[in-house]
Amino acid sequence: MAEFKTIISDPKTRRAFNHALSESDSSALIGRSIGDKIDGIFVNLPGYRLQITGGSDGSGVPMRPGLPGGRRKRMLLSHSTGFRPQRPGQRKRKMVRGQDLGPEVSQLNLKIIEYGPKPVEELLGAEE
After folding, report:
1. How far is CA 100 from CA 2, 77, 89, in A?
2. Could you please report the per-residue DSSP string of 46-65?
3. CA dihedral in degrees (69, 63, 107, 72; nearest 10)?
4. What is the pTM of this model?
5. Dihedral through CA 97, CA 101, CA 104, CA 106, nearest 10?
6. pLDDT digits (tens, 9 = 90+) for 16-69
7. Could you count the other beta carbons within 10 Å of the beta carbon of residue 64?
């Protein structure tokens, strides 16, 4: 099944923490979308609320909000998720993945939106 590596961002301290999810916790997140709010218990942060902000699959193809489903698609992009132009007005056709989480996703980006009683460093360790 799917196992996600998660990058959890803390806006207060401006730090990010790496955490690997077990297969059971990962399967509970399948079907969620970018922008959804999840309970922190899935990533060993009881009392916290997190928001899904993005991710990528095993090949490094980024997830893009607004693209329904979890499939890959080649899109003509200007300045946005998946492409940073080198000159003004430049556009390019790039491969992106839809906004829904599936078993193909290997990395998941999360942002803390509500804090719990214990600090994040204590719950996840001092990993960066």
Report:
1. 14, 19, 29
2. TT-EEEEEEEEETT-PBB-T
3. 60
4. 0.87
5. 100
6. 999 898 888 888 899 999 999 999 998 889 999 999 999 999 999 999 998 999
7. 19
Q: Which residues pair with 80 in a beta bridge?
A: 83
Distance CA 51, CA 54 (A): 9
Q: What pLDDT is stored for residue 128 in this prediction?
A: 45
Residue showing tokens 């990993």: 127
Q: Which residue has the higher pLDDT, 74 or 123?
A: 74
The CA distance from 67 to 94, in Å, is 13
Per the listing, tokens 């060993």 go with 44
In the Cβ-directed half-sphere of 2, how many Cα atoms lie within 13 Å? 21
Q: Please answer whether residues 16 and 43 qualify as being in contact, where contact means their C-beta atoms are separated by less than 8 angstroms.
A: no
